[in-house]
Specification:
globular, 10 helices, TIM Barrel, 6-stranded parallel β-sheet, alpha/beta
Length: 317
C-alpha cells in the first residue's frame, strides 16, 4: 500500500488531501535558540502557530510538509502535538537546508555518516520521538554554487532516498548540474527529486527550468506570496503577477505533472522577525483565487495540490 511518514505515523497517500509541500512550523538559523532576544516560550509558539494551522484545516488543508532541516529549529515532539491538536497531518524531514546551516559536527561528517543519520531518521525515527522522516531536505549554500559540503549532503541524501524510497526536496534549483550528476551516479530517478525555490526573485532567472524538466525532475514554485508588493518584502521577493505568469506559462507548456506549489511560510519564526503578513494560507486565500481568475480549472488545482504531492511523497519500496 502506498504510504507516507507523518509525525503521528504512516498514513495512506490517498489520505493526505490538499498538501502544502514546502512549509515551516518554525525556522531559524543555527544558534538562534541561544539568543536571549529571541527566546519564545512554548505558549508563545503555540499561540502563533495553532490559529494558522486551524485555518489551513478549515480551508480544506490536509497535510503540511515541514522542511526545516536538522540544526534549523526542527522540533518533532512539538509537531506531534500541533498535529494532534489541529488535525493537520505534518510530515517532518531529515537532512539540511544547505551545507551552510549544518553545524560543525555534521559539516565534518563523511557521506557514509550522513547517510546513516538520514536512513535512521527515516526508518527508525528522529531522536526518541518515534516519528519517522517523510522527506529528505538538501540545499545549495549561499553563494550560488554547490559547495563541497553541499555535494556530500546531496550524495548521502541520494543514497538514503534509494535505500528507503523517501523523496528529496531541495532548497534552490540553481547550479543543478552537479546535483543531477550525483543523483544519476547514485541511481536515483529524478522524479523522486523536487527542485525547490525555482520561482523566487533572485533565483528564478538563474534556474534552468527546461533542463530540469527534460531530465524528469520536478520543479517547486514554492515561495508563492513572497511578493514585492508586501509592506516589507524580503530580498527573495518577486512581483506577484510575474511569478504567476511564469507559473502559468509552464502549466500551459505541458509541465503540470512535474510542478508543485507552496508558500514556504514560517508559522512562528525563530531568531528573526519573519515576513509579516505571509502564511501558508496564502495558498487558499490568494493563489487559488489568482489561478481561477486566470482560467485554471479545478482538475488542474487538484492535480497540483493533491495528486502530484501524493505521488511525490509516497514511499517507493
Ligand atoms: Zn523553506
Amino acid at each position: 500500500m502506498s504510504r507516507v511518514n507523518t509525525v503521528l505515523g504512516p498514513v495512506p497517500a490517498a489520505e493526505l488531501g490538499f498538501v502544502a509541500v514546502h512549509e515551516h512550523v518554525g525556522y531559524g538559523m543555527p544558534g538562534s535558540e541561544l539568543d536571549t532576544q529571541w527566546w519564545k516560550t512554548p505558549e508563545q509558539r503555540y499561540a502563533e502557530t495553532v490559529p494558522k494551522l486551524r485555518r489551513f484545516r478549515e480551508h480544506g488543508g490536509g497535510t503540511f510538509v515541514d522542511v526545516t532541516g536538522i540544526c534549523n529549529g526542527r522540533d518533532v515532539d512539538y509537531y506531534k502535538s500541533l498535529s494532534a491538536k489541529t488535525g493537520v497531518h505534518i510530515v517532518a524531514c531529515t537532512g539540511f537546508v544547505g551545507g551552510d546551516t549544518a553545524l560543525p559536527h555534521f559539516a565534518r561528517a563523511s557521506v557514509d555518516y550522513l547517510n546513516r543519520q538520514f536512513v535512521h531518521e527515516i526508518t527508525v525515527g528522529i531522536g526518541d520521538t518515534g516519528s519517522r522522516a517523510g522527506v529528505i531536505k538538501v540545499g545549495v549554500s549561499r553563494g550560488g554554487r554547490m559547495t563541497e559540503l553541499d555535494k556530500r549532503i546531496y550524495r548521502a541524501a541520494a543514497r538514503a532516498a534509494v535505500m528507503t524510497g523517501v523523496p528529496i526536496l531541495t532548497h534552490l534549483a540553481i547550479d543543478p548540474e552537479p546535483a543531477v550528476a550525483i543523483f544519476e551516479e547514485e541511481g536515483l530517478p529524478l522524479h523522486r527529486v523536487l527542485f525547490g525555490h525555482a520561482d523566487d526573485g533572485p533565483n528564478a532567472p538563474n534556474t534552468p527550468h527546461e533542463w530540469i524538466f527534460e531530465r524528469g525532475g520536478r520543479i517547486g514554485f514554492d515561495t508563492f506570496g513572497y511578493e514585492t508588493e508586501l509592506a516589507d518584502p524580503p530580498f527573495w521577493a518577486r512581483p506577484r503577477r510575474e511569478r504567476l505568469e511564469h507559473f502559468l506559462s509552464l502549466v500551459h507548456q505541458g509541465h503540470l505533472d512535474q510542478l508543485l506549489a507552496s508558500a514556504d511560510a514560517n508559522c512562528s519564526p525563530l531568531g528573526w522577525p519573519g515576513v509579516r503578513g505571509h502564511t501558508v494560507n496564502y495558498l487558499f486565500e490568494d493563489l487559488i483565487p489568482d489561478l481561477r481568475d486566470a482560467g485554471v480549472d479545478q482538475a488542474t488545482i487538484t492535480k497540483l495540490f493533491v495528486d502530484n504531492p501524493a505521488d511525490f511523497l509516497t514511499i517507493h519500496s
